[in-house]
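In response to a reviewer's request, we include the raw inputs and outputs for one of the modeled complexes. The two entities were modeled together in a single run.
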Amino acid sequence: MNCKNVEELLPLYVGRDLEEKSAAMVASHLQSCGHCAHSAQEYGEANQLLQLFEPPQFSEATYTAVRSRVLREIERESHKPQTIFALEFLRRPFQPRFMWAVSTALLLAVSLFAYYFIANHTNGPQERADAESRHDKLKDLAAPSGNDPKPVLPGKKNGETPGAIAKISHKPRFQQTAWHSRRAGGTPAVPVRTAQYSTTESKGTAPNTSLTSEKTLRLEMQTSDSNIRIIWFSHPATNEGSPNESSKGI
Amino acid sequence: MLSEIALNRNDLPVNVLSENQTWLQLLIKRAVSGDTTAFEQIMIHSQQRVMTLSWRMLGNEADARDASQEVFLRVYKYLGRFKQDQDFFAWVYQITVNVCRDIAKKRQRHTERFASLDTTVEESAFEVPALQEGADEALIAAQQRELIAGAMATLPEKERAAILLRDIEGLPTDEVARILRSSSTTVRSQISSARKKIKIHCERHLWKKGGTRS
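The model returned the following structure tokens for the whole complex.
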């Protein structure tokens, strides 16, 4: 233990506020260090001076006056009319401490309300915007353009151009996100999104013309490669066994 | 009968009362039930401690009187909350410290008073060498009291309360921590800091100027 450490501990050492182990180490150091021993002596003298911090001798009259005032106050309080107590009770809510507590509680409540309001308000439009953007993307995917290997679907009965999808449900609903493996090893590589569309009456390309009035299920999967798109059409009555089985793949 | 005997024990010194908890508990019970005579006895046996601590905290008699009055009013008001297993005088000290803090905050007068006292101490410290020969011991003692009062005035409020309770009232550190509603470590740190400052103050104003060393 060096002098610097001892100097830090001396104020507690002289007041016997140190643990035994530390006190023994300080005492050992003081025996060998005159400078620290002198400092310890000064602390002791300062402590002796502190004992002189005495108030003047208060007279008995002073004490009596204090007691009398206290007893008078107690007497006055005990005879306070009930109306004053009621006034005190009414006045209590306006005391500073109470007012602070109420203000803090109100501030917290308003903050929480504002947080939830803003959170809900911002999430709604965001979700709508996301849905619309998804819808637009799918629309783009569905629309025939350029060299895209899109299926040519029969148009509507009223003679629209074949190839145009007669109707896309207003809100395309993503059913699942699958992993399409393009590698032999089967490593999942390309996320494929699938969407389901309900088309209205279709005709022409279907081998069975009697099914033109049936609803066609279109299942479209977009791979990460924009040139590769997998679209499945399903006619419920194409397969006699199960209506859910796919009938055509493009 | 027992209560009458108790009320006749007015001349018992305070340290004897602290040992006789049963007698004090009896007075407290009676005071809680509204017996003002019993409460007056409690005041008589604790007034010196309260006044002295108030004076040491606030630095003047007028404030100490006001503080004592407020302390006893609070003691009477909250006596019902006092637990019998507690040390009554530690509880009173706690109230006293709180009241003195409130008064110091409200009035802010004690700082100026201590400051003026500090000036006096500084002036008198220069005169100490002249008093060495044929010194009047009482006068030197008075100067030393002023010096230590000036040193106490330099301390922050919390350090002053901690060192008053620990070094002057002689309470254990844990008890001081309980009264000040603080931890023992914090109190030890405050006490250490206060002792350093007092020593430095003494060095500056007394020892290095060739003043008296006790």
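As requested, we also summarize the result in words. The two ends of chain B are 52 Å apart (CA to CA). Confidence is low (pLDDT under 50) at residues 1-11, 118-131 of chain B.
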